[in-house]
């Protein structure tokens, strides 16, 4: 595990920092520190324009292989980019799912024709993606998805019917990758396929879900005989489970260090307020702040352990514990924020209510231990796949 950076890496850090300082200004200055979790509804069109600015600077796909249009940067330089981006207040990425999930999956499992057709739109910051995994009756249990897909009579199109839920920014997406059941009598992880579906069609309906924060970045997505071309199948029919698991491995890549820098920004804000309002004089709150700081360091070192292994989408033990670790830590940070704010955390001036950054943090972090794989499911994954313990008894589907 590498913890330090070389002189060349630090020179690269200066390059990234300079570029961000220059370009997160003018029309993009209002985007600084905006658009993250709980704030993803903010400035969608401006953040899409920011994606195109990143593309012009060749800052999309920095870790992609050169043959796929990326810069092929080393792991250490990718870490530096994500850390400096968050440190500079870079806005939440509208292209994160395309760059961080779809791109690596296409590189690993897509055909050359699929790569040539779909990767440029991501790299150019002009095509945006959403994720069609969770379902109302399946939740974090991907092996229980019931969305169905079948080839039409011509064999040229897949017809998809079903419902997905908690789909981030589906209302802003051009494409959705959908895990669907393509073998009618299949159960569990058998008979699933991985399909890429264009969103601009009448047979797809996106319905927003209003959260505690009053915002609606999550959606339900209804597919009623939605159409996608046969060549938008990744891999072979029945490969969906293997590809879905690899994609989750890519999700736990270098961007986790950028996520942690965003957490660091939030912790800094809590400390600033604690000093200003006197909460820092409370020994119990000081102890909790110290525990939050220490916990964030542990998350960083665990991420560096993850990144020391293969970057092929396989889930190491370190990767399997990451979601459980960060979601629990971040949920506790939300509680700490409210306790530091004190009575002010429960007061707003009046309608229309505009939550402060820390109020929004608290409310949104109530969902951290649920979305992206609930803590209960994560503990099963760790027990069964990382520790080799007996599988939990499962009843009939």
UniProtKB/TrEMBL annotation:
Its cofactor is FAD. Keywords: FAD, Flavoprotein, Oxidoreductase. Belongs to the acyl-CoA dehydrogenase family. It comes from Pseudomonas gregormendelii. Residues 238-386 form the Acyl-CoA dehydrogenase/oxidase C-terminal domain. Gene3D superfamilies: Acyl-CoA dehydrogenase/oxidase, N-terminal domain, Butyryl-CoA Dehydrogenase, subunit A, domain 2, Butyryl-CoA Dehydrogenase, subunit A, domain 3. Residues 130-225 form the Acyl-CoA oxidase/dehydrogenase middle domain. Residues 8-125 form the Acyl-CoA dehydrogenase/oxidase N-terminal domain. The lineage of its organism: Bacteria, Pseudomonadati, Pseudomonadota, Gammaproteobacteria, Pseudomonadales. This is Acyl-CoA dehydrogenase family protein. It holds the Pfam family Acyl-CoA_dh_N.
